Amino acid sequence: MTQVFFYHGAADKIAAACALLSGAYAKKKPMLVYAVDNSVASSVDRMLWTHSALSFVPHCRADSPLASETPILITDKLDSIPQDQRLMNLSQEIPPGFSRFESLIEVVGQEESDRTAARDRVKFYKDRGYEVRYFDLSDR
User: Fold this and answer.
1) pTM of the predicted model, to two decimals?
2) Angle 21-107-59 (CA atoms, 0-180°, nearest 5)?
């Protein structure tokens, strides 16, 4: 069964997501980033290029010719997935087919609309028997 992790209370949702992606890359764990909003996808892409002067996190869009060689992929579609290990959800919806993944990482900011949508997703997962684990980012 998919493990569900909620990283909530992030002052900057994109920065928190990029820090988690950087950590995943350092541990050699591939990640598929689900971002249906193009501005969110572009922000993640941009921040991964610039968030740390001392490291580089290889990433690209899932439809790139380099996708098969890249550990961090950003996509707005989950119909053809290159890996089924880890999915990071940066949308406010339930990712379609999330149960194919070993882990689902939800990143939630401090905006009320983001928090409300996250509560709905938590209820959805719990109602279907998924154990949800929480990590508070508000004091970082």
Assistant:
1) 0.93
2) 25
CA 103-107-109 angle, to 5 degrees, is: 165
Q: Domains plus CATH for the chain?
A: 3-136 (3.40.50.10110)
Question: How many C-alpha atoms does 90 have within 13 Å on its Cβ side?
Answer: 30
* Alpha carbons 28 and 12: distance in angstroms, whole number: 24
Which positions ≥6 away from 74 have C-beta within 8 Å? 33, 35, 41, 44, 45, 59, 60, 61, 62
Picking from 136, 91, 102, 107, the residue whose alpha carbon sits closest to that of residue 29 is 102
pLDDT above 80 for 140? no
Buried (b) or exposed (e) across 4-23, using 16+ Cβ within 10 A? bbbbbbbeebbbbbbbbbbe
CB 2 within 8 A of CB 128: no
pLDDT confidence bin for 139, thresholds 50/70/90: confident
pLDDT tens sequence across 34-77: 999 999 999 999 999 876 655 678 999 999 999 999 999 999 99
Which amino acid makes up residue 96?
Answer: P
